[in-house]
Amino acid sequence: MAESHDLPLLRLPRAAQAALVAGARDNEPVRGLTHNFYKYPARFSPIFARAAIEAFTQPGDLVLDNHVGGGTTLVEALATGRHAIGVDISALAEFVASVKTMVFTEAELDRLQAWARCLPSAIQVRKSSIYFADEAELGYYKHLGHPSRWRLRKAIEQGLGAAIRLATPRLESFGRCVVLRTAQWALDSRSSCLRSPNSGTCCRRPAPRWWRAPASCAPPSTLTVTSRRSASSTARALASKTTNACCTARCRGWS
Ligand SMILES: C[S@@+](CC[C@H](N)C(=O)[O-])C[C@H]1O[C@@H](n2cnc3c(N)ncnc32)[C@H](O)[C@@H]1O
Fold first, then answer.
1. Is the model's pLDDT at 212 over the cut of 90?
2. Using CA positions, which residue lies closest to atom 1 of ligand 1?
3. Is 115 a pocket residue for ligand 1 (Cβ < 6 Å)?
């Protein structure tokens, strides 16, 4: 009798089975294409998603992801020449997935890169910002109301204002995603590091320069923004994220 690992898996060719198994075992940090435009929780491994798409579909087929999450499957589907459609119960997931799968024209990418170059001058602590009252009512200012966080709040408001001034829905969505991604760490209220269960040492990479947690790895409610240069650092981070994202968009080579 054949060993269990010799049994055919869904009658797939051996190479496809091996790719699926390797993808399922993949525990490398997610990277490539537009995957890191936003770090959605519980993301699929893009290697697994690609192996599944290649095993079960042909170029030109339509891939449906009805739990789209961060859009990993849709991005991989597009990159392998499939059509892709997705839906999610979460508006955030749908927003992020739609931005990650946008295919921009050269003219749009030029506009975004010019926008990125101007961002540092739009995000200045001495300039005014828009207060987004509707968003505040919906709870999007959570954790940003503390007096120590006004610089961060202002930088986010100015970044969003700059995104809105891009004045087309596609470009504005991209701009909003850049702000979201840059501020994600703060918006998620993550501490700068986690205690490793074994060694007790901090195992996360350091927080962005414009946001500092107390050295004690204290819980989110005690996070404070201490950098006086937070707004300008945020502006530089936003500009660099946009430039990187534009480069990714240019080079990603959708089929
Ligand atoms: C692990 S993520 C999916 C990852 C995604 N397939 C990818 O390729 O990156 C799970 C998603 O399922 C969504 N979800 C949970 N229940 C749902 C439902 N009833 N209808 C639609 N989406 C749902 C969650 O909001 C979450 O975004």
1. no
2. 42
3. no
pLDDT at 40: 85
91, 83 Cβ separation under 8 angstroms: no
Helices 150-164/230-251 angle, 10° precision: 40
CA distances (Å), origin 201, targets 101, 197, 205, 224: 38, 8, 12, 21
In one letter, which amino acid is 116?
A
Helix or strand (DSSP H, E) at 1: none
Q: From ligand 1's centre to the CA of 67, what distance in Å?
A: 3
In a domain, 49, yes or no: yes
In a domain, 224, yes or no: no
Specify whether 167 is located in the same domain as 240: yes
The verdict on 170 and 148 lying in the same domain is: yes
Give CA–CA dist 25/45, Å, rounded.
9
Q: Determine whether the shortest distance from the Cβ of 86 to ligand 1 is under 6 A.
A: no
Does the Cβ of 67 fall within 6 Å of ligand 1? yes
Percent of the residues in the chain that have a pLDDT greater than 90, as a whole number: 47
User: pLDDT tens, 47-86?
Assistant: 999 999 999 999 999 999 999 999 999 999 999 999 999 9
Q: Report the half-sphere exposure of 179 (CA within 13 A, side-chain side).
A: 25
- Note whether residue 214 is domain-resident: no
Is any ligand 1 atom within 6 A of the Cβ of residue 58?
no
Q: Are 38 and 100 in contact (CB under 8 A)?
A: yes
Ligand 1, atom 13, lies closest to the CA of: 67
Q: What is the total count of domains within the chain?
A: 2
Query: pLDDT tens-digit profile of 17-34?
Result: 999 999 999 999 888 999
